[in-house]
Amino acid sequence: MGTLTSLAEEILANAKRLDQHLSSQHVMPTSFDHDSLADLPSELESTKKALINSTQTLKQLCQGPVGSSMEIIFNWTDLLSLRVIYEFKLAQAVQVEGSTTYHEISSKSGLPEALARRFMRHAMGNHIFAEVSPNAVRHTAASRMMATDPDFFDAVGLEASELAPTAGRVIEALKRYGDSGEPNESAFSMANETTLSIFQFLGQHPERARRFGSGMRFFTKGETWDLKHLVSGFDWASFDHPGATVVDMGGGNGSVSQFLARSTQHITFIVQDLPGTVEQGRASLPVEFKGRVEFMAHDFFTEQKLQNPDIYLFRWIMHNWSDPYCMKMLQNLIPTMRNGSRILLYECVLEDTPATLLTEKMGPNLDMIMAACFNSAERTRADWLRLLEKTDKRFCLHSISQPEGSTMSIIEVLWKSA
Ligand SMILES: C[S@@+](CC[C@H](N)C(=O)[O-])C[C@H]1O[C@@H](n2cnc3c(N)ncnc32)[C@H](O)[C@@H]1O
């Protein structure tokens, strides 16, 4: 790890690299008011990553064990002020440009002025809003984004108002249910005082379901999540002939199939999902995909009806379900399997070691979401192997590939009947 000085020198070198790039592009230096580092060329993305990781390490070393633990322990206060800002729409109550008084914010939001000042001042410690006078505030880049980018606002709401309260019930759920793996014995079900699973519950609460989807989409936006990695990481060309079929299991509105249809010429994509989702997907399918992307209602916990398609694709399905449920999904495909039949799982494969770098925490963070909401888990390579083996030894793990720059991996499973 080196000394504080060597870390600081590394930081200095990387900071200079980024500053030099900005000045060569005649872009203003980055600040809390303007994020000039949002669109860096890919070769500088790794410089930014290194800078984030080494500044975090330097900070934690300087804080020492007590200071860095205190920061974790008090994190709930950051979430609290953020949640107040979200629920009372305080960001939307501040003019996009210029300043707004606490008095005006209070009249627009309905939150008493003294409370608005208190919670907003707390958030200012995180550079969310800035004060221009004791009575007035203006936006920073973060608060302006909350006011102007509905997807970001949904992501904040999902974390602060959905997942954080859910996390508060995890201990109770663990004590009551252990690792039952049952979707309706989760902290989410407890937090919402329901015996339904999260999917069933959100099915009855369309606005929260919309926010959940939109928030997750925001977290998984950007280069490292891009579906182009699913295209580049698998040899689709060798299947791209007339008559070839890919079944997109739990394919939602068909967005993955549409992306793949655009990248291939002949393959027919059959999106299977629950009846309501299939209806919506079919109704909103752009004309250009008619004949290439079809929809079919099918519950993946029942036996597959299609005969021997070329590929079954599961994106972001199995991480939502504990092993017994995933085994059921796989067993339901067995009657359609022939020697060499192929299943692709597009999932985040966790390292079998702790992620100690800040930029590598997304996988473990998603794993916490799985634990709290779904009673499931993100899996390591060994977990996938174990799952396949205990389902049926004829499901063979052929490969796991993580395309360069991708957070997700392609897990290729072959059926070997011999
Ligand atoms: C996390 S979403 C993933 C959607 C899509 N694969 C994607 O990557 O965008 C999970 C999907 O599983 C579907 N689903 C849940 N239970 C199902 C079941 N029993 N049978 C089929 N689909 C199901 C949901 O409706 C939802 O579309």
From TrEMBL:
Pfam families linked: Methyltransf_2
Keywords (A to Z) from UniProt: Methyltransferase, S-adenosyl-L-methionine, Transferase
Gene Ontology MF, one: O-methyltransferase activity
Domain O-methyltransferase C-terminal: 197-390
Keyword Signal among record annotations: no
Keyword S-adenosyl-L-methionine attributed: yes
InterPro entries with a match to the protein in the record: COMT-like, COMT_C, SAM-dependent_MTases_sf, WH-like_DNA-bd_sf, WH_DNA-bd_sf
Highest taxon listed in the record's lineage: Eukaryota
GO BP, sorted A to Z: methylation
Transmembrane segments: none
Stored PANTHER family: O-METHYLTRANSFERASE ELCB (PTHR43712:SF16), PUTATIVE (AFU_ORTHOLOGUE AFUA_4G14580)-RELATED (PTHR43712)
Protein name: O-methyltransferase C-terminal domain-containing protein
